[in-house]
Amino acid sequence: MRKRVMWVAIAIAGAVVIGDRLFPPPALPEYSVQVFDNRGELLGASLTPDDKWRLRTRLDHVNPDLLRAIVYKEDRWFFTHHGVNPYAVFRALWSNIRSGRRVSGASTITMQLARMLEPDERSYFVKLREMVRALQLEIRYSKREILERYISLLPMGGNIEGVASASWIYFNRPPDKLSLAQSTALAIIPNNPNRLRLDRSTAGVRKDVQRWLRRFLADDIFDVRTVRTAMEEEFTVARSALPQRAPHFSLTVRERAAGDLVHTTLDPSVQDASERLLWNHVQRVLTDGVHNGAVLVIDNDSMTVAAWCGSADFADTFNQGQVNGVRAIRSPGSTLKPFLYARAFDEGALTPRMRLLDIPSDFHGYTPENYDAGYAGDVTVQDALLQSLNVPAVRELARQGVGPFVTWLGAAGFQEIASTRDRLGLSLILGGCGVTLEQLTKATSMFARHGVIQSLRFTARTAEAGKGHRLISPAAAFLVTDILSKHARPDLPAELRAQSRLPRFSWKTGTSYGKRDAWAIGWNARFTVGVWMGNFSGEGAPHLSGAEMAVPLLVDIFDAIDEDSEHHVVKRPKEVRRREVCAATGLLPSERCEAVVEDWYIDRCSPNRRCDLFRPFAVSADRSVHYCMDCLPDSGAAEEWYPVYDPELAVWFDENRVSVPHPPPHNPACTMRMSGDGPRILSPSPDYTYYLERGAAQQIMLQAASSAGVETQYWYVDGKMIATVRNGEKSFFSPTAKEHRITCMDDAGRKSRLRIRIVYY
């Protein structure tokens, strides 16, 4: 007998399992995607694909009074039955038989959930199916999970489902902030969602609320004082929109959301401060023709997004406020220069006090100019970066090579630059490329993170960002950070220079061609902040520059979000040390160097060359000529030391009447030719095709730079001498053929040659 019972039980269990597998309960409907900040407050939500406001609701995010009211009202034995309440079923069946009509349904909360998942006309067969489904749901889910799904799907009128949706839309507050009267109102709406919709009329709902509050009091569900207060409450209802905070960020996160509950890293205090300051700043500059801006704040330790402002006002349709400025592709101006110099530091090519040429330069027809159209001759690396000089940066990029630099930028996350590498040239370092504020701010954060770049984290999932990878050394990151932390610089506006205390951070500005984009990217050990100012229409403005438009906002944001910036300094790595260098070259000083200064250097990386600016010359007694070894007189000569500058720099000094010591000319009586390189031909260029108008008598400039001591240069065109000039002096000739051979010879007999092509039109 026992075996027979056991086999019957096994058969029934098997039939239940097979039936459950063959006829599983319907899948849960899709929920609205909800986006929360890092404190768990709702930033925004979206309609479901079937156009419902259906917010998934966690029990611990709901006022316990609301849960108690719902369970008491709908299913007092919910936590004790297994989906079906037999007593309620038989009582309802008996009542319906006696009355001859349906007066009671006996539906438990689990059965109601089954009906919401599989709606159908009321009948005994449907009721039986609901019971089976309820048993299936009880097997699959815990009581807590069933209750969560139930309160998330309750019909609340129109396209509103769930208590969280109703709480926000009817009362403009989260469900954990509802009063007992409001909770009771939401608990009774599902009885007749269309008649009891709170956005239409509250008269009928108020009567039902009072009736249920009296029942709560009679059955001792809530204490007397709480119920009395609820009965006296005059709650008002007006349909509200769900929160729409940080809308650009919320939309960005929703696009990549893996579920419907997205807990992000956004810091509401940092976000609110950034939004307020951006809006205020845009209002101040409207009269200057600037109507928008964007801000991105990154927490450097965790690489989390702390603030994301895609525009000054999302609702400003006239100025395209719905454009996400953090992800808009714009010209970066000079903001890529720190990366260029960081690579040079890591290569051991430069240190902050070494000198770079800042003179007019021709790169195969490309002739960059500085922002102020002036030149300094030569400048230190740190001054070139602080003053954002264009010519030294272009010359340094030419040395490193555009291809390797573009590859490196691609590894730093500049996707647009990497994808257009075949169309990029030297102008990319001045903004001749496209970047986004997101890419630029993320890449800049590596200077605060000791050279390690890492993906941004948008949500609380710890694995999202990955481990990151190193692009520059901690030493190079520190050198750039130290240089750009100085306040004595042209991109600090005059009104800020007068302030006694500025927040401590490093920053770099940028202004695109045509003054269409103004950038300021700042960082310290705690935050990296990116600011863009401009117009989404692409329209420029006379005062739209990084210094004038973006830096004031950047300073305000750091002031607001980092009150302790003095303690958030990027630490110096142990391999970065100080040493004395020659002030004139930035190299290790020789005994002839007239002045020395201190400079940072990277141990076992930075160049250790001795300064060789000053070189000995054998000169006549009256210092009128100098001698080479071939013409040194038997009587000997005096030795004098003179600076020997780069030939191009020497020419620039001469043209701009910069007084520097010169060795006397080479002995004119010498018949021997000096060894060494010939003149460096500056113009014309062999890589440039000259397009000339036929019959217009146009000329081509001839200019070359020779080493120190050369006085005279001789120019030949197609073997015929056409000009005799001083070292570096310009001359001109009129071309007559499609190709010409150009030769420049100095007075020491050294020659340089090239060919040029002419196209006449």
Plain-language structure description:
The protein folds into five domains: 2-232, Penicillin binding protein transpeptidase fold (Orthogonal Bundle), CATH 1.10.3810.10; 245-330 and 436-468 and 505-572, DD-peptidase/beta-lactamase superfamily (Beta-lactamase); 336-434, DD-peptidase/beta-lactamase superfamily (Beta-lactamase, 3-Layer(aba) Sandwich); 574-611, no CATH class; 680-760, Immunoglobulin-like. The longest helix has 21 residues, at 2-22. Helices cover 32% and strands 18% of the residues. With 761 residues, the protein is of the alpha+beta class. The N and C termini lie far apart (113 Å). It contains 22 helices and 27 strands. The strands form nine sheets. It has a five-stranded antiparallel β-sheet, sandwiched between helices. Strands 21-27-26-23-24 form a five-stranded mixed β-sheet, with no helix packed on it. Strands 2-1-5 form a three-stranded mixed β-sheet, with helices on one face.
The name of the CATH architecture of the largest domain is Orthogonal Bundle
| Main beta-sheet annotation | 5 strands, antiparallel
Cα-atom radius of gyration: 39 Å
Question: Which CATH first-tier class of the largest domain would you pick?
Answer: Mainly Alpha
CATH topology of the largest domain: Penicillin binding protein transpeptidase fold
CATH superfamily of the largest domain: Biosynthetic peptidoglycan transglycosylase-like
Q: Which ranges are low-confidence, i.e. pLDDT below 50, for 5 or more consecutive residues?
A: none
Strand segment tally: 27
What is the mean pLDDT? Answer: 88
Helix content range = 25-40%
How many helices? The count is: 22
Structural class: alpha+beta
Distance between the termini: 113 Å
The global form is elongated
Overall tally of domains: 5
Strand order of the largest sheet: 7-6-14-13-12
